[in-house]
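Design job #97: recover the sequence.
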């Protein structure tokens, strides 16, 4: 396998996140180890199995929302939070098969884009879910060239559209930064200490715990639908494996919120290993319905076109 180019890594990030999402979806809320119990041997085939209401290869809300972010960035020529929020709302009204609790509450509130998430957080005090982190691969690709401070800030602003808890903003900012390092060929795991230094001080300690070299998903103090163990599990999966397929297998074997943990893992692993690291059989099966936007269904080639737009000079 030839070394991935930056273009291979960008496509690996966007496609890798979508493939992880589709691969993990049938195992959502299942036990630890369910994936490798069913598919003991890497490379054996048939893993895009569907189930739990998902067709084989069907991507879930994680990827659907990621596509909406990507299309907004391209059509608006940059970050237009009101436009992203409008697209999210149209999608939510299109009755997607799955939607996160916090995301649904905020998007259906009728409140304006710049206050809806904050108002929800004021009353619920629960908004540190992984639902903003899960959709961040395309925005991480888009903002990588803007540098550390700018990509982390964009991550925060995109997360804040649906998640009022700054913990969700910082987790998304961290993911943007690790991707920024990985996309030109750097080691995102080695970049963790520098990335942590750029996290808002009030949130640093908690992220330092889940990103520590000796952290393991079994040490999580919350369900992995929360932002901290979700990001921690993704970095753990990349740190403890040596290829895309093994990283995503490890992520799904964590159990719990398997589609999102695998989407976050798959984005980072795709950036590290490039699109050529993602098994062809998984790329071919992938499809992304877009509720609220007609009968559109995106395939891998459509995600590739989007990615070319995100990285265009
Ligand atoms: Mg999902």
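Job complete. Output follows.
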């Amino acid at each position: 396998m030839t070394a991935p180019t930056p273009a291979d890594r960008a496509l690996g990030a966007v496609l890798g996140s979508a493939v992880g999402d589709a691969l993990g979806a049938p195992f959502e809320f299942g036990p630890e180890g369910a994936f490798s119990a069913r598919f003991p041997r890497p490379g054996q085939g048939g893993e895009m199995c569907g189930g739990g209401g998902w067709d084989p290869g069907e991507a879930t809300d994680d990827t659907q929302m990621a596509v909406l972010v990507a299309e907004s960035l391209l059509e608006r020529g940059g970050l237009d939070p009101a436009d992203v929020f409008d697209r999210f709302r149209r999608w939510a009204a299109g009755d997607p098969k799955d939607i996160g609790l916090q995301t649904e509450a905020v998007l259906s509130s009728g409140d304006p884009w710049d206050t809806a998430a904050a108002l929800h957080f004021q009353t619920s005090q629960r908004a540190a879910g992984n639902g903003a982190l899960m959709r961040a691969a395309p925005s991480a690709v888009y903002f990588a060239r803007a540098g550390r401070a700018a990509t982390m800030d964009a991550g925060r602003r995109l997360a804040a559209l649906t998640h009022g808890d700054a913990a969700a903003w910082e987790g998304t900012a961290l993911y943007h930064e690790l991707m920024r390092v990985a996309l030109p060929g750097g080691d995102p795991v080695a970049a963790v200490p520098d990335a942590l230094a750029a996290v808002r001080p009030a949130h640093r300690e908690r992220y330092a715990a889940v990103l520590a070299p000796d952290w393991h998903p079994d040490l999580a103090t919350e369900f992995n639908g929360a932002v901290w163990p979700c990001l921690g599990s993704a970095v753990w999966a990349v740190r403890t494996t040596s290829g895309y397929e093994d990283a995503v297998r490890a992520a799904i074997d964590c159990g719990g919120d398997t589609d999102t943990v695998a989407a976050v893992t798959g984005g980072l692993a795709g950036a590290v290993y490039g699109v050529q690291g993602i098994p062809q059989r998984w790329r071919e099966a992938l499809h992304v319905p877009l509720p609220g936007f007609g009968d559109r269904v995106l395939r891998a080639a459509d995600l590739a076109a989007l990615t070319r737009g995100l990285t265009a000079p």
